[in-house]
Amino acid sequence: MRSILVFLALQVLIGCNSSTKNTVETHKFTNDLISESSPYLLQHAHNPVHWKAWNEATLQQAKKEKKLMVVSIGYAACHWCHVMEHESFEDSTVAAVMNQHYISVKVDREERPDVDQTYINAVQLMTGSAGWPLNVVTLPDGRPVWGGTYFRKNDWINALEQIQEVYKSEPEKLIAYANRLEEGIKSMDLIELKTEAVNFKNFPVAEIVSKWSNQFDERNGGFKGAPKFMMPNNLEFLLRQAVSEKDDELLAYVTLSLDKMAFGGLYDQIGGGFARYSTDEKWHVPHFEKMLYDNAQLVTLYSNAFSVTQNLLYKDVVEETLNFIAREMTNSEGGFYSSLDADSQNEKGALEEGAFYVFTSEELRRLLKDDFEIFKEYYNVNSFGHWEKDNYVLIRKKTDAEIEREFELTSEVFQQKKKSWKETLRAYRNQRPKPRLDDKTLTSWNALMLKGYTDAYKVFGKEAYLNSAIKNAKFIAEKQLQENGALFHNHKDGKSSINGFLEDYAFTIEAFIALYQTTLDEQWLHLSKKMTEYAIDNFFDSEKQMFYFTSKKDPAIVSRNFEYRDNVIPASNSSMAKNLFLLSKYFEDTSFEAISQQMLKNVSTEIMQYPSGFSNWLDLLLNLKNDFYEVVIIGEDVDEKVKNINKHYLPNKIIAGSREENNGPLFQNRFVPNETLFYVCKNNTCKLPIKDPKIAIESLNKNE
Description:
alpha+beta; five-stranded mixed beta sheet; 23 strands
């Protein structure tokens, strides 16, 4: 991030001078961002730079004035974004250069993932790497010609002045490079229609996982190297594969990863919830920002892992994480906020990464008194847990049982001590300045959290989880979903202004299907179908049989691309393919299944080469490789039967239920008065109705 990225095509030589002391003038300036709702954009509203938001008026101004644009992209919880703002964008000298020669545009990558992905691809092509802050210079038409990530003040000024000089004296060089780069961007994330047959039944999943295992960190869990990201979708698939194949070794690796993540400083041992990633291999020191999308997916993962293992650690993680979400990340409408910043004010009033979360040994000794020696051993207030200066990031190495034996404590006494420690330290640190909250709500991330709550309710049966899920689903349905099936992407201060992206549809459909399988309220299933039909009409490329990330109703930024590789968040295309598979079962719609299978065929070759980037696709593939069931439950006791079956880890099925006679495709001629019956079906063939849920569950476990 700190390295200076060079514009190779123009051979602009940028010096490596260290940053000089800036004269910062705060709140003496106001720019166009003051009218925006994004907290990240509002953070820059008083910079001396004449920032503008990304919109049609800004783009037209650049074309009219024939000015180059600086497009600077980040997000509210981004530490290095704050550093560059302080060093450069708050500096009047930097602002003078930018204001004289450029139209400067600030973009919240979370609000505009389409803009972000276009310029991420461009910088990736130019430099070989990309990240945030992302800073790009473009022609007046938005086509990029230069870019990088974090720049020191002098390097930034030098680069902008030299690029402007080239634009003034030899603009044809920039235009020629923009043309070549445009072709490169258009070639990225493209997909070819695969017409040859693929035998999913014989797909070598076990061999793929075996080769993939070379990347597994068998000591610390997760994947080798640092920084270390949690990659919940990778672990979700590997959990399913381990259970499906009764692979104890693979299951041990998955549970090791979950244990180490939960023991690590990456997990907020006092307040619950996970930070975005660990800077080291042992999950100790996090990059302290907390993102909604990570915690949402991890709630699902730890809930599913508990249903497999019954490990109480996983239950604690889910409970504490959802308490954190309810306490700090939920608004009065049931919507979920986006993130908490990595930085907060230290004792001197300066922004410092992690200041809110860390403790000194002296603080802990004073607060915990007689319990300090036990706490010290449990949370490693020693060389293992030391971070920097006198600060410790709490990290565990021992289980509760080991500590109880070491200090001769009963489980009841030790659990009460833990509860008291956390309450004491949470109250203490809440007196500190809190990290800044990004209080916008994003439909896609809200849907991930909605599914997290739903999955937690399935496993643990806590009514508060279901209530939060339903409240959020109603928020999305009433505030973000339009009558024609279209979604908005963002919501803040009562306004939704950005058209939805494919991720909004994919994750909302998935969450609503999960909510239907829990509540049996058919409105969620029918809304899922409605959104799917809208997505097919407005995002689907019938030639390539994949979905574009942006709607055909929105102008392309350089190009319209397909997002199909899974990352920290699953790809919107892989999630859509899974949704289509499930909806094809619910509505007996063969066209949905045909699209789903063709999408999977399109990526099948890449799956073999790069499984970690296709774990959500692999999860779909298991639906086709192994037996997949429709479980239909009809009768007056259906609610209890559904609760019972949902507690079990059974990823190879859908559930449909009705309390009374129902004309839906899965229910016809199956209602029997005064009976509650299970119908377990596979490949359009059903077994005889079953009364005992244990027998139904056993039949689902035979093949997976």
